[in-house]
Amino acid sequence: MVDKHIKVTKLDLDLPNIDKDIRIKHFADLHYCSSYDDAKLEIIKRNIDEANPDYVCISGDLIDSTNFLVTDREKRNHLVNWLRELASVRPVFFSIGNHDISYFTSNGFRVEWNEGFIREIADIPGLVILNNKIVYEDDNINIKGLILPFKYYYTENRKEDLKKMLRILEEQKNRLSKLSSSKVNILLCHSPIYLTNEEVTKYIEGFDLVLCGHMHNGCIPPFLDEIFKGNRGIISPSKTLFPINARGIIEKDINGHKTTIVINSGIIKIQECAPLFLEKLNCFFPIGINDINVNRSENSKVLVKTSSYYT
Ligand SMILES: [Fe+2]
User: How many other CB atoms are there within 10 angstroms of residue 99's CB atom?
Assistant: First the structure.
């Protein structure tokens, strides 16, 4: 079925001032769980190994809920070992999404952070969990995460809470503003919903790339995705119809600096916690992985080119 194929979205970003070209594999929304088909993990790993990128970025929702971490030791170990293999070859960065801190109950979700699991993957050599404290910097990149809490995602009106996000951004202002002009500045943020909001953009000024997930491509069927370009989806994870910032690439000029927001379409589109008949529809959606090439440019202009292909 289509869900064993990868749709690779290729992004070429020409940046002045950087010292070296870099290649990134980016994905989000693996939604790993007890019923997961592990063949998918192998397909993803093969795609990454063949491309041999400098870095791998995972923008949240590595797991579907924390439930299986305590009930299914075998699956938990399988996921940890897969991450260990990925990170043994190049740095892997992971920022936390709403499902990574959620326990699924018959009434919906409650917040449950599995400290043991987070510590276990944080100990994997080469894997960096980008929380609201850590900054990773090497000769080529300066990379940070922006983690939004459970209460930002799960509100009474089911809309993500812009005010809460602005409060966190204000707290994080100093950390987010320390950037490097000769390196690629990257932010991992699970939800892209408010990243084009004028109140929010001033906090992400100076970032070259913001890598997101969460929207599952707005659940747009693949054939419509090819016909209707743009960033709107059909439905968001919070059940908003025709959401903005649901898919694709968004180029945003923030006070003269071009920030490219990349919304990964997700490894899966419909999570395990959805009704079973909906989850079955996953077989009609390809695995979404982004290939991001950041190229050193002699030109002072930032250029962005995109294309896509199926494997
Ligand atoms: Fe997700």
Answer: 27
Token pair, residue 148, equals: 């939004």
Q: Ligand 1: distance of its center to the CA of 63 in Å?
A: 9
Closest CA to 23 of 95, 122, 97, 89: 89
CA of 268 to the centre of ligand 1 (A): 8
Q: Would you kindly state where each structural domain of the chain is located, as residue ranges? A: 2-310
Q: What does pTM read for this prediction?
A: 0.95
pLDDT digits (tens, 9 = 90+) for 44-95: 999 999 999 999 999 999 999 999 999 999 999 999 999 999 999 999 999 9
**Contact between 187 and 18 (Cβ < 8 Å):** no
**CB of 306 closer than 8 Å to CB of 262:** no
**Single-letter amino acid, residue 68:** F
Name the architecture of domain 2-310.
4-Layer Sandwich (3.60)
The tally of CA atoms less than 13 A away on the side-chain side of residue 300 is: 2
Residue 52 CA to ligand 1 center (angstroms) comes to 25
Residue 214 alpha carbon to ligand 1 centre in Å: 4
